[in-house]
Design brief:
It is built from 10 helices and 14 strands. The chain is α+β, with helices and mostly antiparallel strands and 273 residues long.
C-alpha cells in the first residue's frame, strides 16, 4: 500500500511547530527519523493531512549538560548516541544501549524522542529511560511542562501528549561516581525487538535502587526500590517475590515471568560487578 496524499512542512522554530499543531485540528503529525511513522503511513494506519519535519530546528538536535544531567534534543539519533555525542561522565550506559538497537541503518535515522513518543513496549529507549529516571520536556500551546518518562508513557503506543504539544528534549540524570547500572534484553535474534528487558539503576549516594521491566504488553513496570525483591545478599533476586510483583501488573504467564526474571537477574549481576 501507499500513504494518502499529505503536505510536508519544515518549521524553523519550536513556536512555529506549536502554531501549526494548534491550527491543524489533529490532522498534522510530527516526523523526524520516520522509522516507525514511515511504515504506519504506508499501511495507512495513520492518514495525516500534514507532516511537520522538525529535524531542521537546531534545538531539536542539541545536547546540553550540567553537573546533574544531560538534556538531549528529541531529534538526536541513536547512531549519534552510539558514536559518543553524549558526554560519558555518568552516562556510560547510553552508547552501550544504543549500539545494540536494531541495525546501523535504523540507528542512523531513528531518534531517541521518536522512540519514546511511539511508546512501543518492546523498544529499548522507553524501557532504558524509564529505568534511568529520565524526564520528558514538552512544549505546547499552554507552555512548557516536564514529566517523567514512565508517566509520559501510559500504555502500549500511548503517551500523554495533547494535540498542540510535542516532545522537544529528554533530560537524563547522571549517575554519581559510585552509581552502577545494568541493562539486559532477550531477543530471538540480534536486531529484533525484545521479548523481555531488564534495567537496573543503583546509586547509593542518592538512595536509588530502581528496577524496570520492559517489553511488557503495556507500559513498563518501574519498581522504585527493588531491595525487597532480593535475597539477603542483594545480588540474587527472590523468584517468588519477582513473580508476585509481575502478577500485580498482569504478567501471569509462566513463560513471560521466567523471561523477565532471567533478564532482570542478568541486569542485576551486571550492575553489581
Amino acid at each position: 500500500m501507499k500513504p494518502v496524499a499529505f503536505e510536508v512542512v519544515r518549521p524553523r522554530s519550536i513556536m512555529e511547530v506549536i502554531d501549526l499543531l494548534s491550527r491543524s485540528n489533529g490532522d498534522a503529525r510530527i516526523v523526524a527519523g520516520a522509522q516507525s511513522l514511515g511504515p504506519m503511513l504506508n499501511l495507512r494506519l495513520v492518514q495525516p493531512e500534514m507532516l511537520l519535519d522538525i529535524t531542521g530546528i537546531p534545538e531539536m538536535s542539541a545536547v546540553e549538560e550540567d553537573e546533574e544531567g544531560v538534556t538531549v534534543g528529541a531529534c538526536v539519533t541513536t547512531g549519534c548516541i552510539e558514536d559518543g555525542k553524549l558526554p560519558r561522565d555518568g552516562l556510560a550506559m547510553m552508547p552501550v544501549i544504543a549500539a545494540d538497537i536494531a541495525y546501523r541503518a535504523v540507528r542512523n535515522r531513528g531518534t531517541i524522542g521518536g522512540s519514546v513518543c511511539h511508546a512501543d513496549p518492546a523498544a529499548d529507549w522507553p524501557a532504558a529511560l524509564c529505568g534511568f529516571g529520565a524526564t520528558c520536556i514538552i512544549e505546547g500551546a499552554n507552555g512548557c511542562r516536564t514529566i517523567p518518562v514512565n508517566e509520559f508513557i501510559v500504555g502500549a503506543f500511548e503517551n500523554t501528549l495533547a494535540a498542540s504539544e510535542f516532545l522537544v528534549a529528554i533530560r537524563i540524570p547522571r549517575l554519581s561516581k559510585k552509581g552502577r547500572w545494568g541493562y539486559q534484553k532477550l531477543c530471538r535474534k540480534a536486531g529484533e525487538f525484545a521479548m523481555a528487558i531488564g534495567v537496573i539503576k543503583i546509586d547509593p549516594a542518592l538512595d536509588i535502587f530502581r528496577m524496570t521491566f520492559g517489553a511488557m504488553e503495556g507500559r513498563q513496570i518501574v519498581v522504585s526500590d527493588f531491595r525487597s525483591l532480593c535475597r539477603g545478599n542483594a545480588v540474587e533476586l527472590d523468584e517468588r517475590a519477582v513473580s508476585e510483583k509481575l502478577a500485580e501488573h498482569g504478567v501471569t504467564s509462566p513463560i513471560a515471568s521466567r523471561q523477565q526474571m532471567t533478564v532482570m537477574q542478568r541486569a542485576l549481576r551486571q550492575a553489581m560487578t
